Each structure stands twice: as structure tokens, then as C-alpha cells.
Task: inverse folding
């Protein structure tokens, strides 16, 4: 494992030993190319939950590791963490979508770091179906026209905001997107 990847996982501060063990298993001895470590904290009315997502490229695969914590529940009387990994052959990654949010776009210069980046990766494992009632142009029609909708491949989206994580984290996400795009273009 590259020292910078280990340092980034450690800096994320979210069960680094667990995450590194999971990555070592998933990488299976292959050399690591690019990586992105994205810690995230979510808040709801009852609890604070932490997550970390780590994306790694090897010469043949995209490895995705995700860890999150859980409070005591029916499966465990004590708090616990779950770390899952998925290894995707690079030839299966069919889309790398990078959405950039830029404030004051008229002043944007080539090379400026955006305010936010969302990286959406698709490899066909998950699809989202968005349905809504179909309608017709007749305002007096009360017939049931069924449903219409769209099917979207949406295996993973990672959102990095400069306001929350800093400009360096946004730049790192763009660098990972460039590396993954190059690796999947072969």
C-alpha cells in the first residue's frame, strides 16, 4: 500500500486499521495507482453517523471500500462498524461523471479548483428507477395512463465540497477522476 494512501486513511480518522485491512484484502497484492479517501459525517434528528469511502485503482480493477458505524441494535448489543469492499474490473466501469460547481463562473480560469465536485461512477451493478404518473395533454382527461420514468445507472456518487473538506480535497477528487478516466479509456 502506498504511504500516501495509508496517511490519507489515517488522516480520515475513521477506523483506519479496519479500512486498511479491508483494502489489503480487496487489492490482493496488486500495485495501487490512484486513490481517493472521502470521510463524511451525516446528522439526523437522533444521531451522528460517520462514513468513509475509499476508491483505489489497480492495473486491472477499481476497488471501492466503504465503512460506516452503527449503534447497538438487534444484531449486536454493542456499537459496531461495517466495512465492505467491491472490486470492479476496469473494463466494466462504463462511466465516470464529474459534476463541478463553480461560483462566479464568468471569472473562472483554467486550472481553478471548483467549489464542489461530485464524482459518479457506473459499472452496472445498481440502477435507480424514477417513476411518475404518466399524463396526457387533455386537461379534462381522468384516465389512468400508467407510469413513465427513467432508469439510471448510479453505482456510486461521492460529493466533495470545498466549504466542508477544503480545496485540497476537491483537487484530489478531480485528480482521481482524471486517473480513473485514463485507466478506463484503455
Result:
Amino acid at each position: 500500500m502506498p504511504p500516501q494512501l495509508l496517511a490519507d486513511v489515517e488522516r480520515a480518522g475513521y477506523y483506519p486499521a479496519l479500512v486498511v485491512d479491508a483494502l489489503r484484502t480487496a487489492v490482493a497484492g496488486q500495485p495501487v495507482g490512484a486513490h481517493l479517501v472521502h470521510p463524511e459525517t451525516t446528522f439526523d434528528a437522533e444521531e451522528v453517523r460517520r462514513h468513509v469511502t475509499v476508491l483505489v485503482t489497480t492495473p486491472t480493477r477499481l476497488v471501492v471500500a466503504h465503512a460506516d458505524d452503527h449503534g447497538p441494535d438487534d444484531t449486536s448489543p454493542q456499537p459496531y462498524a461495517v466495512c465492505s469492499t467491491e472490486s470492479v474490473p476496469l473494463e466494466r466501469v462504463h462511466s465516470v461523471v464529474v459534476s463541478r460547481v463553480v461560483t462566479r463562473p464568468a471569472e473562472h480560469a483554467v486550472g481553478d479548483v471548483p467549489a464542489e465536485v461530485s464524482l459518479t461512477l457506473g459499472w452496472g451493478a445498481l440502477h435507480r428507477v424514477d417513476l411518475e404518473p404518466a399524463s396526457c395533454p387533455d386537461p379534462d382527461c381522468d384516465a389512468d395512463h400508467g407510469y413513465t420514468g427513467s432508469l439510471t445507472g448510479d453505482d456510486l456518487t461521492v460529493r466533495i465540497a470545498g466549504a466542508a473538506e477544503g480545496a485540497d480535497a476537491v483537487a484530489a477528487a478531480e485528480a482521481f477522476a482524471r486517473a480513473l478516466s485514463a485507466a478506463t479509456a484503455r
About this structure: The two ends are 24 Å apart (CA to CA). The chain is about 25% helix and 40% strand. The mean pLDDT is 90. The first helix runs from residue 3 to 12.
